What does this fold into?
Amino acid sequence: MDVTPYLKVENAALILLEAAARHGDLSRFMLPTSEVPRGNNYSGFAPLSWLAHGKQVAAVWRMLRDFGLARGERAAVFGHNRVEWMAAALGVQAAGGVCVPIYPASTAPQAAYILNHSDARVVFVDSVELLGRLLDQAEELGTVERVQLIDPDLSLDVARDQLASRLEQPSARALLERTAPWNDLLSAMGDTEVELATRSAASVPVTAPGMMLYTSGTTGHPKGVPLTHENLGINWRDWFVNNAPRLPEDGVDLLWLPMSHIFGYGETIIGNRLGFLSYLTDPKTVLDLMPRIRPNVFMSVPVYWERLAASVIELADEAARAKRLQAVTGGRLQFCLSGGAGLKRQVKEQFLSAGILIIEGYGLTECSPTLTLNRPDDFDFESVGKPLPSVELKLDDDGEILAKGPSIFGGYHKNPEATAEAFDSEGWFKTGDLGRFTERGFLQIIGRKKEILVTAGGKNVAPGNIEKLFADDPLFEHAVAYGDAKKYIVLGVWPNQEELEARTKASGRSAEELIQSRIEAANHDLARFEQIKRFKLMAPSLSVDDGMLTTTLKLRRKAVYERFRDAFEGLYE
It folds into this structure.
């Protein structure tokens, strides 16, 4: 694809509104319907045009203008993926405000913390369940002046009936009184709002903040990461240049990554820029839909690529596996991206043997987010690629990856201490990741600086490198390495109980024997000092609700170590 027309740095709201004017009644999204399947006549999706989506964005802009949201003020979006989520985010940006996404998995106190810390005046909510969480924390929401529902099918009467038990407190009733239904926004639309919203978006400086995402972190409260339109726009520009050889002219993607995460948000804006037709789906159905929708673009976290690869592994013949992979993915994949965590080389090679190249990169929210990418014509499967054109990288003396460039954020919101800690004296951002460069200039990630285990023998061990060996094994939900200041490394195993029981029954082997066999196989890929000497099956499962996982399902290592310390220490007795 010739990406030259898409290299201007603009804010995301303006990108969408101008595209809506160009594309008009052409379809931008395909939205899932509740239609009952009826043979070959079942489509399961209904189109939403570019112009209709542009009107949604303009309706939000108009409401915020009338409400009095000043430029630079924050408005949060607390909801699951839906086009109204994106309309809310872009409407905030068109008004010159800062959009603050809140993960829908956030607990009531977590959501309240973000709303208060960000000083959000408005919060968009998409369901009775999430509205209920806000009502539970109504006494604490000192800055929220308006709650805006974004589900067209959710009325205030329904919300009031379903949340009656939570309205006993005066603060909860007062918050509900400041809540407005989505359909009121659209019914108040005039004929000129799209044009006026476009003018407003065009007047917002690219140097102004447009998003503030909260990094979940592994300890303490999350930190607010303000990103300017320029931060994001330059990163998208680099992304287009890097991936141009593989980008299709008529992109069709399955949009399922969370919009509240910069990966899913970025995919949506890239689709707006390049004119994608996006089928809105969810984590449970996305893989089943691939052979029917036949996308030519697919962006995902590693586990879904691994599931696709695992679905053909039982086929002994390489040609048969390749044919099967083409079938289960729809046979049209042209651009494929994996992010969020490392993808095993074996999986990438399996897809490449079927003619499907998966591009992998590396980044952080603070970097808008991408720092490196492999390229369609220059890749190394043992790496996360080379730095993007606008990014400078170097390694500190201890191997920590340091970054500079116009896509790097300027500092954490209301947290000067964390900001000072995040940058060195020369202004390099400290990623916290340890890396090394190959002779060809590709970056390899070898661990997290703060998570390094130093054994009693003085050896540095990156627990993540051990744990990723079990990431795509169906017997494991989680594997956690332990052994700081110890003579050897041990492993806590949280098994997939259903899969483990099925395997033990089929094989006649015990659960411990099956897990031990997996560990012995993994030890072949580890240095002697990294090898796992003992393990223990752990319970209960790790979850977001119990504080063991972040809202993006990353391990809270310190919390896990503290909760299960006795079990880990028992492996040294």
Summary: The first strand starts at residue 27 and ends at 32. The mean pLDDT is 93. Residues 348 and 358 are 6 Å apart (CA to CA).
